[in-house]
Design brief:
Layout lengths: L1 E5 L4 E13 L2 E7 L3 H7 L6 E7 L3 E9 L20 E3 L2 E3 L6 H12 L11 H11 L4 H5 L14 H14 L4 H7 L2
Antiparallel strand pairs: 1-2, 2-3, 2-7, 4-5, 6-7
Length: about 180
């Protein structure tokens, strides 16, 4: 099948969802389809049998359709699947222009707290999603100003988990300025 992934900058990327397969030391169940032009070039439809590779030995991508299924070529939706805002096309790519889109906000927080940002141990996607859903945390500033004891007891989060996050946040505050600016995107 094909789903649409909305990134932190609003870019809407079609993603092939498939049965897990071992590839170059990883188990792959999702692969990028880049944009509608690429899908049109492949004439890809949900249900097709596809060949995938790991581009740059990292990013799983659909390379070709090996066997056609019964469906029609997949089309980019007109609206964001997360916030229902009309998607805008810019060049070959589509974007959700809504800065308050939950998918964009989560992507920003994941980037901010992740390895490519401030590398805050204990703040993975699931914890950040919980913070958004239960406490309305949608910005790095709100994340940094959060009263972490409020998280204890939420969906199995204990005092030890919170202590780990608080310690990791203290370490993140000492990171170099360029790393902090990069974390903000």
């Amino acid at each position: 099948s094909v789903t649409l992934q909305i990134g932190r900058n609003g870019r809407a990327t079609p993603v092939a969802e498939r049965a897990p397969v071992a590839l170059a030391g990883s188990t792959i169940s999702r692969a990028t389809l880049h944009n509608q032009d690429y899908i049109d070039q492949l004439e890809l439809a949900p249900g097709d049998l596809v060949a995938i590779s790991k581009r740059g030995d990292v990013i799983p991508a659909v390379e070709q359709v090996l066997e056609k299924g019964e469906g029609l070529v997949w089309r980019m939706p007109e609206r964001c699947p997360e916030c229902d805002t009309p998607l805008e096309k810019n060049g070959a790519h589509h974007f959700c222009p809504n800065r308050n889109c939950p998918a964009r906000q989560l992507g920003l927080l994941v980037h901010f707290a992740g390895k490519s940002g401030l590398d805050i141990d204990g703040l993975g996607e699931q914890t950040l999603r919980t913070l958004m859903d239960k406490f309305g945390i949608t910005t790095p500033a709100a994340l940094l100003g959060f009263e972490w004891t409020r998280l204890v007891g939420v969906e199995g989060v204990g005092e030890k988990n919170v202590a780990q996050i608080v310690h990791a946040l203290a370490a993140a505050r000492t990171r170099p300025l360029d790393q902090g600016l990069g974390a903000l995107g």
